[in-house]
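REQUEST FORM: STRUCTURE PREDICTION
Request ID: SP-0412
Submitted by: Lab K.M.
Chain count: 1
Length (residues): 93
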Amino acid sequence: MVLITAFLIVLSGYVGFAVRREGASMQRTLLRGAFFGAMLQTVISTGMAWLSGIRWTQMIDSGLAVWALAFVAVVLGAFAADLCPQREPIARW
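STATUS: Completed
RESULT:
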C-alpha cells in the first residue's frame, strides 16, 4: 500500500509538471492535478478496501492524507515547470 501511494504522489507531481509545461494556467493545472489525484486515489482505495477487507473509515482517513500529499506534489510540479526554462527543439537540416 505504501508503494502504491508513493507512486500516486510522484505521478501527481509529474501531471502537475506536464500540464503546466503544456501552457495551462496555474489554476487549471492545480484543478487537473487535484482531480487526477482524487480519481486515482479513489480507484486505489476502493480496490484495496475490497481486496483486503479493511473498514471504509480507515481507508477514508488514509485516503485524505494521501490526497493532500498528492495535491502538494501537483503544486510543486507546477512551480518546477515554471522554474525550468523550456528550450526550443534544435532544427535538423
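NOTES: Residues 16-82 form one domain.
Reviewed by: T.R.
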